[in-house]
Fold this sequence. Notes:
Elements lengths: L3 E8 L3 E2 L10 H16 L9 E4 L11 H9 L7 E4 L5 H15 L4 E9 L14 H6 L7 H11 L4 H20 L10 E5 L2 E5 L11 H6 L21 E11 H7 L5 E10 L7 H14 L8 E4 L4 H11 L12 H4 L6 H16 L3 E8 L3 E9 L2
Parallel strand pairs: 3-4, 3-5, 10-11
Antiparallel strand pairs: 1-8, 1-9, 2-8, 5-8, 6-7, 9-12, 11-12
Helix pairs in contact: 1-2, 3-12, 5-10
Amino acid sequence: MQDVYVVSAVRTAVGKANKGSLVQCRPEDMAAVVVNEAIGRAGVPAGRVQDIVLGCAFPEGSQGMNIARVAQARAGIPDSVPGITINRFCSSGLEAQAIAGAKLEAGLLGVAVAGGVESMSSIPMGGLKYEPNPVLTRERPEVYIAMGHCGDNVAREFGLPREELDAWALRSHQRAVNAIDRGLFTQEIVPLDVTTPAGSMRFDTDEGPRRDTSLEALSRLKPAFAAPERGFCTAGNSSQTSDGAAAVCLMNGRAVEEFGLKPLARFRGYAVAAGDPRFLGPAQLEAIPKACEQAGIAVSELGLIENNEAFASQCLYVIREMGFDPEKVNVNGGAIALGHPLGCTGAKLTVQLLHEMNRRGVHYGLVTMCIGGGMGAAGVFELCE
């Protein structure tokens, strides 16, 4: 069995869905740019890539027709390089790495690109034609519960006050703004040349973080999903709908040695778990220890954690129940400020994590997220020093 390494890791800046700079940018174009850049930074010929695995939460419309293969063609990569699109909702970009990584570990592949893409401007939550199963709608409606209600359920049933959710949201924006001002994302972001109603521009900065928000402003927002007396999740303490793409180049040890490369990190463990679909977060409590066990480390050895902020309630619940030091979690802000482009997010968080691990010299890092349907995923990475 071969070790699995991340040799390069890149992402686009994230745009606001429906009103941001990437509204008119096609998803396969975004994907093509990050795939090409990941290969280029790895320093291997594009024709040596043996598979492109991309996650996409709603692979239909402009994101349909196996977008990984379409992105390969759009990128001008040789037709000999295949592609596959996979979907596990919010963990799709991490699941893509796990699928490619398992094949690399087994020796079925030597070089692969994995990542994710989502244009929520093009394809809305629920897809273009929502058709729930009538039997399940009647007998198990929680299977189709809206994610916002899941976030409310977590806050209500596990004792997370609205004030704590808003405080975490403010922290997310403040840390994201600080990271942007310090240029911390510059190296990992691939600029996009895009067309907007205002004309052509180069898009290279996440546009979700708000400099002007405050605890007072956040506290005035009404619950977005439930009645005021029962709601906790607002537009301010929930993730932003977004557009973006991210990709990593993965290789096994044999390929790394062949090309004489110095990897960024080793992909050490991955796990997914599931539970009651009414909640977001509890399944992560099972997935995280499993991933750490695969990596051969204790949870306490994690030096940095990217916990996708689908909702502040879910993020805080996982931090509390896992006993995480908040100062190790989302150190440069999270999805409340930086956005959550669904199928891209797992790859995007990996990119952010690995670059920050490299800056700080942190040995072990974690990417984790809740997933619609009561699931949760976690991936562990080890810095190559």
